[in-house]
Amino acid sequence: MNLDFTQIVPYIPFMLEGIWVTLGFVIISIILGFFIGALIALIKISNKKFLKWIADFYTSVFRGTPLILQLMIVFYGIPQLLDYDVSPFLAAVLTFGLNSSAYVSEIIRAGIQAVDKGQLEAAQALGIPYSQTMVKIILPQAMKNILPALMNEFITLTKESAIVSVINYLDLMRRAQVVGADLYRNFEPLLFVGTIYYIMVMILTLLGKLVERRLRQSD
Question: Is residue 94 part of a domain?
Fold first, then answer.
């Protein structure tokens, strides 16, 4: 076995910068996905049949096609159709945000439906508008039920973020590829960033368990 990790030592700062690059676009994506997903979830539980059909179709498209295909369509398709060059960062945020929103919408929908229906009926009896009822009464209670699931979605996006390396976005994965190409040795940099991914996911998993434990204690 011919392994020599000393050669990647000068490149370690370069690869470590990929942590913030990766987490940066993942955090923005999950925020974007949350707000779009919340809107889609509210449409799904509404009485507007046509809008519900659109929301269900949207969800099925993003959940039923590969994420890497969606990324390629955004990065290469938009410039062809709209004559607008999309930066790797924007393509990554849009793709991951829209993809995440499809999953988040189902999480939020389930959380809203888990709230006692009597509260919605009481708000309606008091004449509180539907939008205010959802934003001020139902959604805050639903958030308590869906926070662990949202944390799992954040963890999933972090692991899947390596896909953006195919559009030359300088995330952790792409930086490992750059170092490998420079040294003509791929295993060591890949193993190094693989360890970083593992540590990141384990930290996020522990945070998720901590949040879940706190929520159970507050019940």
Answer: yes
Question: At a CB cut-off of 8 Å and minimum separation 6, what does 182 contact?
Answer: 11
Total count of domains within the chain: 1
> What are 64-84's pLDDT values in tens digits?
999 999 999 999 998 888 888
H helix intervals, the chain? 12-44, 49-64, 67-72, 78-82, 88-114, 117-125, 130-133, 139-160, 172-183, 187-218
Q: For residue 4, is it within any domain?
A: no
**Half-sphere exposure of residue 12: CA atoms within 13 angstroms, side-chain side:** 9
Q: How far apart are CA 217 and CA 141, in angstroms?
A: 15
Report yes or no on 154 lying in a domain. Answer: yes
Q: Which domain holds residue 81?
A: 14-218
Do 3 and 131 contact (CB within 8 A), yes or no?
no
Q: Is residue 8 part of a domain?
A: no
Residue 184: DSSP 8-state: T
pLDDT digits (tens, 9 = 90+) for 166-207: 998 999 999 999 999 999 889 999 999 999 999 999 999 998
pLDDT-derived band at 53 (thresholds 50, 70, 90) equals: very high
